[in-house]
Amino acid sequence: MRPVNLIPPESRRGESAPLRTGPLVYVVLGLLVAVLAGITAMALTDNRIADRKDEIARLEAEDAAASARAQRLSAYTQFRALREQRVATVTSLADSRFDWERVMRELSLILPDNVWLVSLNASASPEAGAGGAASASGGASGSGLRSSAPGPALEISGCATGQEAVAGFLTALKDIDGVTRVGVQSSALAEQSSAGTSGGGGASGGGSSDDCRTRAFITKFEIVVAFDAAPVPVTAAPASVTAAPPVDPATSTTSEGG
Predict the structure, then answer these.
(1) ∠ at Cα 102 (99, 107), nearest 5°?
(2) Per-residue DSSP letters for 136-195?
(3) pLDDT tens for residues 95-151?
(4) How many other C-beta atoms can be found within 10 angstroms of the C-beta atom of residue 118?
(5) How far is CA 36 from CA 30, 42, 43, 46, 166, in A?
(6) Could you tell me if 108 and 154 are in contact, meaning their C-beta atoms sit under 8 angstroms apart?
(7) Interior CA angle at 239 toward 113 and 102, to 5°?
(8) Is residue 213 within 8 Å of residue 100, measured between CB atoms?
């Protein structure tokens, strides 16, 4: 027969007595654990935020210090850039420099006795020679021959005792160091004012005030001497030389038929 306990539950003692607290204790305990976890997470988050703020402040301070240092050194950077620019400019000018003094010295050595110059224009480029002295003196400046030579060139205008003397002068000009081409713009006697090897540069008539043809056998010429192998400068400035006034050849010079 099965025993039955007739004692009320609230009056029981021992192992058979039920718990008096119920599930409320577990609920409260869970809430406490959740609150503790939340407080711990908030503390950790606050610490992490504080660390990030400190790192941001440190980085901002370093950035400000670097900016101030860069500002102090900017003058040196600008000076270095200016120095490099000027060195490049000087190097370019030095590389493109043309020895006109040597050319003039060699020209004076090869100039024949039966040839004399009226005008001479030495230019480093066609643009530089466009306003040279030879143009004002009736020379070959601005001619088609000069515009076809991109580098340094001589534009020579003068007279000789005949066409053979002009041909000899052309041959002598080729002996100048660096000469690559010698072109004749015009070459004519006094009565052949329209003669010329290429159009647009004929010699002026015998009655012109700047005409050096004082005798019937004298030939007036305009010649362009090109130095194509020379480097072309970045900025070319004309170097104009005006020759001495023409001198009549000796009266004993024999007349050439041209």
Answers:
(1) 125
(2) HTT-STT-HHHHT--S-EEEEEEEESSHHHHHHHHHHHTTSTT--EEEEEEEEETT-TT-
(3) 667 888 899 999 999 999 999 999 999 888 887 655 444 343 444 444 678 888 888
(4) 23
(5) 10, 10, 11, 15, 115
(6) no
(7) 55
(8) no
Name the token pair of 77. 């950077």
Tokens of 126: 């066609």
pLDDT in tens, 165-224: 999 999 999 999 989 999 999 998 877 554 444 433 333 444 445 678 888 889 999 999
Other residues' Cβ atoms within 10 Å of the Cβ of residue 221: 28
What CA–CA distance (Å, rounded) separates 222 from 216?
Answer: 18
pTM score, two decimals? 0.48
Q: Are 186 and 195 in contact (CB under 8 A)?
A: yes
Q: Which two tokens stand for residue 205?
A: 């008539």
CA-to-CA dists, residue 251 to 31, 33, 115, 161, angstroms: 135, 133, 14, 11
